[in-house]
Give the backbone structure.
Amino acid sequence: MAYLKALERLIESLSKLPSVGKKSAERMAFAILNMDEDDVLEFSEALKNVKEKIHTCPICGNYSEEEICEICSDNTRDTSKLMIVSYPKDVIAFETAEGYKGLYHVLNGVIAPTRGKGIEDLNFTSLIKRIEEGNIKEVIIATNPTVEGETTGLYIAKKLENYDIEITRLAYGLQMGGALDYTDSLTLVRALEGRRKL
Amino acid sequence: MAYLKALERLIESLSKLPSVGKKSAERMAFAILNMDEDDVLEFSEALKNVKEKIHTCPICGNYSEEEICEICSDNTRDTSKLMIVSYPKDVIAFETAEGYKGLYHVLNGVIAPTRGKGIEDLNFTSLIKRIEEGNIKEVIIATNPTVEGETTGLYIAKKLENYDIEITRLAYGLQMGGALDYTDSLTLVRALEGRRKL
C-alpha cells in the first residue's frame, strides 16, 4: 500500500522545503492531518497569499507588499547612503538592529561560478542605474563574509570604482559577547588588522 | 521594521509544524518566496485537499479517502486477525513490509497519564465493538516498544482477556542487519528470552 493520494501530494510539496527530507515531510504531513482544520486552511491561505501579495521592489529588489517598498518610499531615510546586501533577509537583519538610516540594494544572490551564477543573475543593472542617477555618495558593501559573498562584494566594488562615490565595506572583527578563544583565526587576524585607536 | 504581513503570517503557520522553530520557519518562508508560483499554489492546494479528502475510517480508525478505508473494504484480507497499532503510520509501515494480510485497528495515540491521555482519548470503544461482533480470532498487539506503548498494549490485553480470542504481541529482538554490540541491553535480554529452536 502506498500513501493515500492526498497525503502523497502533500508530502511531495513539503519535501521541497529547505532541509526537509522524505522522513521529515512524512512526519509533517501526519502532523498536519492532526491539526485543526482552521489552522490548515489558514496555512493554505498564507501560502497563496505570500505569492499573490509579495513582489520585488523595482528600485531596490527587496520584497514588498506595495508597488515601491516601505524603505524606498520612506522620505525620512538618508538617500546618500546605499547598502548592498545579497538577500532580503539581510535587510531585515539590519532593520531589526536599527542604527542604519540609508537605503538598500538587494542583489538577490551571489556570484557563484561553481553553481553557474554570474553577475547577470543578480539585481545589478538596476544598481548601476541608481548610482548613475547621482544622489548616492556612499556605497556600503554588506555581502556575507563567505568566499562567494566576498567575491561578489569585490566584483561590485571594482565595477563602481569609476563613479565619484565612496565605497566601504562592513568591518570584520570579534562578535559582541563572543569569546576570543572561540573566534576563528581568520576573524582574529581581520580584527587585528581593523584595530582602532581608543 | 517587522516582516511583511503576508510573510509573518506564513512564518506563523510554518512554526506549527513539528520540530520547526522560528528560525527554520523564516528560512522556509524565504525559500517559498523564491519558489515557482505553480509549486506554491500546488502546496497550498495540497494542504486544503488533505483536510477535505482524508478522514478517519469509522471501522478501524485509519486514514481514508473513501467512506470505509481500503483495507477494511478489501475482502481478500484475513478478517480473523486484528493488529492493534497506535498510529496510521504504523499501518503504512506494515503494509510496506507486506507479509501481514489481516486487519488493523488504529488507536490514534497511547495512554500517557503524564500528558493527561487516558483510554477514553483512544479509539477503544470501536475496538470492543469489533471484537464483540465475533469474527476475530487473534488480536496482535503492535504498539510501539516504548514505555507508553507497552503500557497501552498491556492495558488493552487486560481488557480483552475475557473474550475468547488469542492475544499476541510482536516479538522483541535484534534488528535485521543490526550489530549485536550496537544493540541496547534491554533488547538483548528480550532477544534472549524470545529465543527459538533452530
Observations:
- The mean pLDDT of chain A is 89.
